[in-house]
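Catalogue entry: protein
Contents: sequence, fold tokens
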Amino acid sequence: MDINNNNNKDFSEEIVIALRQISRAMSIYSKSLDKHYGLTSPQLLILHELFQSDQIVIGEIARKISLSQATVTEIIDRLTIKGLVTRAKNNFDRRQVLIKITPNGKDIINKKPSLLQKEFLLEFSQLQKWEQHLLLSSVERIASMMKAKTYLANSMVAHKKGIHFKKKNTDL
């Protein structure tokens, strides 16, 4: 199969445009969250994870939400400054730092800010269950095909080896 034929190029362009539209919409929504709650989407995602987990180490948060450990650490720093999370040494393993959501962090989660736009959630909720599963499966498959986890793992390894990329992180 020739991956450079015209049909694949047209499909590639359409896919890139659709992914770009999704990325842009998520970026705009993240700015809206910041305006209304003082939190970006990744910060809110971490608070949701902590709300469900009681306390957890940074590496586990990073794994669960598919962000690098360095990025999660920076986000945790910001959430700590805002008084939404705390850090504490693990009593059983003093090398580990446990992250815990504060009552103020729980208050924000209890206000139910959505990780996704309300318009999307409304349309998504009106789909049949099989359609919802199909969309989720398709998005997961795209992420897998793009090797999103491989790139995340490589960036984590590079960071541990002291290799830093000159890319501004806009997810914070």
Observations:
- Residues 15 and 125 are 24 Å apart (CA to CA).
